Amino acid sequence: MLNYVLKRILQAIPVFIGSTLLIYALVFLMPGDPVRALFGDKPVSEATLTIIRTQYHLNEPFIIQYLYFLKGLFTFDLGVTFAGREIIDVIASVFPNTLMLGTLAFVFEVIIGVGLGIFVGLKRGSFADSFTMVSSLVLVSIPPLVLGYALQFLFGIQLKVLPVTVGTHMDFLHLLMPSFVLATVSIATIIRLTRASISDVRGADFVRTARAKGISEGLVIRRHIFRNSMIPVITYLGIDLVALFSGAILTEQIFNIQGVGNTLYKYILIGEAPAVVTIATLFLILYIVSNIVIDCLYAALDPRIRYGKEVA
Amino acid sequence: MTNTISAEHFVAPFNEDEDVITVDALDETAKSLGFWGEAWARLKRNPLFYIPTAFLIVLLVAVFFPSIFTAIDPTYCAITDSSLPVGAPGHLLGTTTQGCDVFSRLVYGAQPSLQIGIIVTLLGAFFGVIIGTVAGYMGGILDAILTRLIEIFISLPSMLSFIVFLQMMKGVPGVFKLIFIFSVFGWMSIARLMRANVMAAKNQEFVTSAKALGLSNFGRMFQHVLPNSIAPVIAVATMNVGAWIVLEASISYLGLGLGGNSASWGMDISNATNTMIVAPGMLFFPCLVLVLTSLTFILLGDALQDAIDPKARR
Amino acid sequence: MSTLKERKGQPLLTVRDLDVTFTAGYGKDKVTVHAVKKASFEIKAGERVAIVGESGSGKSTTAHALIDLLPGSGKVTGGSIDFVNRELVGAKSKLIEEIRGAGIGLVPQDPMSNLNPVHKIGKQVEEAIAANVTKTGEKKLSKAELKKRAAVALENAGLKDAFDRLKQYPHEFSGGMRQRVLIAIALANNPNLLIADEPTSALDVTVQKVILDHLDTMVEELGTAVLFITHDLGLAAERSEKLIVMYKGEIVESGPSLEILKNPVHPYTKKLIAAAPSIAATRIQSVKEFHHAAKQGGGLHGSADRRENLVEVRNLTRVFDIRGKKEKLTAVDNVTFDVPTGKTTAIVGESGSGKSTVANMILGLLGITNGDIYYDGQNMKEFINKQDLAKKFRSHVQVVFQNPYGSLDPMFSIGRAIEEPLQIHKIGTKEEQRKRMLELLDMVELPASVATRYPNELSGGQRQRIAIARALTLNPEMIVLDEAVSALDVLVQQQILMLLNDLQAELGLTYLFITHDLAVVRLVADNTVVMENGKIVEAGDTETVFNNPVQAYTKNLLDAIPGRNVLG
Fold it and tell me: Comparing C-alpha atoms, which of B201, C378, C149, B250 is closest to residue A249?
């Protein structure tokens, strides 16, 4: 098990360097002079600009800038935006909103996705099964953009039962529509994955053997079908949860939520490179670390991996 | 040896004259189709194949011959004709607040959408298949490097990367910028799928058997491994077309897409959201077309998946 | 429960006119398969009965129908199953659950897939006990008692250190150990009837014998009736008093084992007995004559006369690195033997004996760690890396693999598959290649119409014929048959063996026959090499090895052939 964890961490190092370098390069290649832009139309001396540029290491070669950035990251000094705000404060102010939105979306995914997946997985071939499969395809083909406005129009404007946008009202009622929209992206995948997993395990030999032991059907489902078929589902949900917490630019934009996605979008448009890179990198780290955690969780759930055996 | 039959000894009735047992007989009347023939036969039987195909044909006609559907220039907007209702004379689906013909914009909007969707998918599939095949077939250090490369690109938040990239190339106009940027991030899922398929296929006995016959490494890869791994890619790629079209619309909605007054479903949705309360119809039609297009490719991909691997469903 | 023995001889299970059908597809494409047709039989308390049949005969379906465990769309559509005066057809699931485990136990076929990989062995045995104690009116057991009973059950099934074993996971067990666990589970509750569905066909013969012997002892002590499901007539006759022969869903013959074996009446039974390799005693002879002209001329360097030994293996060793471990695995250890030209040499051994590794090295598919292989007098090391000679070698030595479903590319039509070797070696025009292909189809006794078809449209036996035709395309000197008939049903297997034999007589082919199945070796091999743990245990001509084995391991192997001594 320890070997396995170490191996996964070693593999993650080049991925971390590659992806941060890539995002760093992209952001710093954005055109324009953000430092000059800070001052708008006001006249400013070259000397002042040079001081600010030195402060942000903007005069150094690209790779040195990147190393300075890594150094800051590992000493927990996230730096400040060009506008002078501590980046850590920015994150502290918007991340809770994204966290709430993401959590609620996750609840939708589990209840609708896993719930329906289990239901149709156990009733494979029935009318309910075919119906769910087709409607999940229809649902997945409605882009969040369209679904967002459709729900706003229907529940917000026509029926007037739900608030149209969120703004500063971060409560359950206001977040209901946006979190559902956010969840629909993965719901169809989760239904299909759960269904496939359940019906795979249902046909497994060891399930038949369990029945032959004379244990009750309920116990067969709970102890054998369930436990085994949830392993890939949990893995998928884990990775998806991280994606939800990394902010959803589109959904936050449609419903006017002051979350991570919205903030990143705003910063990109005004060229706030340090903030964009830092926030993006933090979520990259979150993504990479949780991937390792999930792989280890998988190993913990499936003893065949835990003991270093390959699973067919 | 005795020839007596005890009371317990049961024998089913049989006809001594007929040769009851023909070992391993071949049914010579059966039809022969092959892998792709069988897949095509299954596809033809699936009603969910015809509906999206019909809509796709309509879309393709709109791409190549938009003038068949409408004579109105989508970029000609007369402010005097602003916000006409559905069914107004000369304007089948009314006009936008700027006075542009809604129907004409929908028809002409098909062109950039399908261009982007199809070309990005083809490029993504092309590079994905190459990278996935090389990684899966060669294995070893090359596989380790390519797998890390795939992971690097997958770990980047895609929407963020697109926006940063678009911002970086702000000066470059048009469809080709979008195609380029989408393609940079459009190959990983196919590469992963292909790598897994190739790894499964290359260890099959028929590949070893070809090696024992003296077929070269590349010969085995192209003649046996690749044809046996590529089928699932077709279904996934088809579904991807819809995803890229939706992404183009979303990017245009955020104001980073095609720009100008060019006909684009995403832009139309973006423009219509401001007047959603007074003129919901203007929002409705581009949304409807976008959903139908997306659904078309998803249903088509699903039908292809069933045709290629019927076991996956039942 | 002590009454089990006292009841001996009384009717336990009575099956009358049992019908089972499977349906596939929907609407227009709906197909109904009648898997079991009007099957009737009876099992008395303490009796051992075997259902024998080939794949698709309905033998396993019959067994699963008894305890309502039919897979997928399978349904009992008629007849009755009476188990100790209780009707099981159409019974409520409550009653079925009550009978499973306590009344009827099941030992399934494949030990690798029948234990849940995520639960500990202990849990899987304990749940079987816990579910059944209350059925017999006993009180619920405490955790400690359950554990103790589970350990006893494992011990009874022949597993040592049972208490420690409870804490382990299935993947830490070998196949034989897992099968013991499954037997422990099935017998933990003293069922009246035990269904053993091909209980050992996934195991090596020696392990198989030990486990079956142990099972015999256990059921003898407990007085349990056993229903064996098997494809192996020898095993069935050896292990049961009564035989039921099934063919295409119907029972064609049933009665006392020995009587059926000695005096079969139904033509199918007769054929089956005649083909059973474990019962037949000598090498198949061919009536075909050798046409020397058909051979391709000369060896690698064009010398025309044939050497006595086509392949000479000298001190061959192969060492593998084990992933993540320091120690190495010596799969083949200092092996020396000859493959005489024009004869069949068999390498026999159980899994892990290194027999396939030897074959792969002779085929040039796997590198040699130490030692030499001489093909036609030439050291393989000297030519395998020279492109032209290596290619020539590849045309001389061909291979047929075990799995008839994996050895043909599903994307290639049969005709293309057979022509492929000619295309690789750029021999002949398109016309000539086609002509050769049709000639080869004829040689393996398949009609020309097969050429346009695809592998998945053919049966396992037919595919194996195609694989043989493909191996013959280039007029090879030698064919390596790596478990080439192991996956086939007895009758098809016999047919393929006869074909191989005829082809050898006609074309003067040299065969290297790799197999775990000693019974088959006797039918085809002139010489036999017995391997164990990478080493050669015994080698010599087949008659001598079989009739006068010197080594204890060879004797063990021979004794383990099921049904070898049934007829005395």
Answer: B250
Tokens of C18: 């049992």
- Segment holding A56, helix H or strand E: none
Cα separation, B65 vs B202, whole angstroms: 45
State how beta strands C535-541 and C344-348 pair.
unpaired
- Three-class DSSP category at C310: strand
Half-sphere exposure of C202 (CA within 13 A, CB side): 18
Check: CB of residue C392 under 8 Å from CB of residue C299.
no
Which helix (DSSP H) or strand (DSSP E) does residue C374 occupy?
strand C370-375
Tens of pLDDT, residue by residue over B235-285, are 999 999 999 999 998 888 888 877 666 778 888 888 888 777 777 778 888
Q: Buried (b) or exposed (e) across A52-74, using 16+ Cβ within 10 A?
A: bbeebebeeeeeebbeebbebbe
Identify which of B7, B2, B9 has the alpha carbon closest to the alpha carbon of residue C242. Answer: B9
State whether residue A210 is helix, strand or coil. Answer: helix
Q: Give the three-class secondary structure for C89.
A: coil
Q: Which residue of A has its CA nearest to B256?
A: A269
Q: Return the partners of chain A (3 or more C-beta pairs < 8 Å).
A: B, C
Chain B contacts in chain A segment 184-203 (CB below 8 A): 196
Query: Quick one: tokens of A77?
Result: 């000094």
Contact A125 B314 (CB under 8 A): yes
Query: Counting every residue, how long is chain B?
Result: 314
What is the distance between the alpha carbons of residues A32 and A37, in angstroms, rounded to a whole number?
A: 8
Minimal Cα distance from A217: which residue of C? C97
CA C308 from centroid of its chain's CA atoms: 34
pLDDT, mean over chain A: 85
Mean pLDDT to the nearest integer, B142-156? 92
Compute the average pLDDT of residues C396-417. Answer: 88
DSSP secondary structure letters along B81-139: GTTPPTTBTTBTT-B-TT-BBHHHHHHHHHHHHHHHHHHHHHHHHHHHHHHHHHHHHH-
Question: Which of B155, B171, B253 is the closest to A288 by Cβ?
Answer: B155
- Which chain B residue lies closest to A18 (C-alpha atoms)? B152
Q: Name the DSSP letter for residue B175.
A: H
> Which amino acid is it at B36?
W
- DSSP-assigned letters across all residues of B298-312: HHHHHHHHHHH-GGG
Q: How far is C398 from chain B (nearest CA, A)?
A: 7
Q: What is the pTM of this model?
A: 0.85
- Summarize pLDDT for B185-234 with one digit per residue, the tens: 999 999 999 999 999 999 888 999 898 888 999 999 999 999 999 999 99
Query: Is a pLDDT exceeding 80 seen at residue C471?
Result: yes
DSSP state, C392?
H
Instruction: Name chain C contacts of B204, Cβ cutoff 8 Å.
Output: 406
DSSP designation for C306: P
Residue B294 has a pLDDT of 94
Render pLDDT for A45-69 as a digit per residue (tens, 0 to 9).
777 778 777 777 777 777 888 888 8
Q: What pLDDT digit, counting tens, does each position of A136-166 carry?
A: 988 888 998 899 989 988 898 888 888 888 8
Q: Kindly indicate the confidence band of residue A113, based on its pLDDT and cuts at 50, 70 and 90.
A: very high
Q: Is the pLDDT of residue A307 over 60?
A: no
Please check whether residue B29 touches C, CB under 8 A: no
Q: Where are the alpha helices (DSSP H) in C2-42?
A: 3-6
